Amino acid sequence: MLGPVILAASRSDKMRRLISAAPVTKPVVDRFIPGETVDQVVPIIKDLTGKGLEVTMDVVGEDITTPEQSYAARDAYLELIGRLKELGLGTKAEMSVKLSMFGQALEGGHELALANVRPVVEAAAAIGTTVTLDAEDHTTLDSMFAIHEELRKDFPQTGCVIQAYLFRTEADARRLAESGSRVRLVKGAYKEPAEVAYQQKSETDKAYVRILKILMEGEGYPMIGSHDPRLISIAQELARTAGRKLDEYEFQMLYGIRSDEHVRLAAEGHRMRVYTAYGTDWYGYFMRRLAEKPANLLFFARSILTKG
Fold first, then answer.
1. Is 244 a catalytic residue?
2. How far apart are CA 40 and CA 278, in angstroms?
3. What does R_g of the chain's alpha carbons equal in angstroms?
């Protein structure tokens, strides 16, 4: 299985240097990460929303080592919010954040991450939009869910992400569905041990459907994070069975993957949100995209063979 190998490489400084130095890397990375600065991604936001799509913006970068870096991450999101305010898109443009980028893994990291993310959530609410807390590896989740619960006291629209391959997620989904949360369900893109996560794709897919059914039948707002045509079709059927209207759930897909499907779903009246990352610290994000789907790795390998 290539996925675990690629995920291990995502934590390797040697592989980071090798891949970053490859001459073909940048054009391939650009497929998934369309810019390094706010100025570069504003035209992307305008283009996507002009096509009837919605976006969730992610400033990439998670392996921070100092509080000062966490403050810089906070400020990067506040800068983004300032530009989104000028665009006046409301909930058509929200944000996704990784709490590791806000200092979660540092000493006193839970309190630091909460202190850093709160002003971002406040600023987002002030311009009529919101923030979703991304899920990371399983050791961080109790802290993430606690921060999510705390933020929802003042900003109930704050969302979170759950990962189908983790054994704990069905219980998390029931709790979140009962509380009326906004929940993005993804398969999962971190290397997790067999003690806590399914290791086979077929088992993860089955869990995804079980969890999605819980969310669709609950009180919250499901966000279906998948590019899998079969799961998208199942999601539509589960929504119909649960009596949900088209604006009572949404699909989410990554920028640069199945772009035609983004437009097709939006044309059918679905809310379709494109997860769009930008920034200079792209390596970890890029490697997880390769690990998630073999076709992405083949795309990268083919580019190296033909252009290297």
1. no
2. 9
3. 18
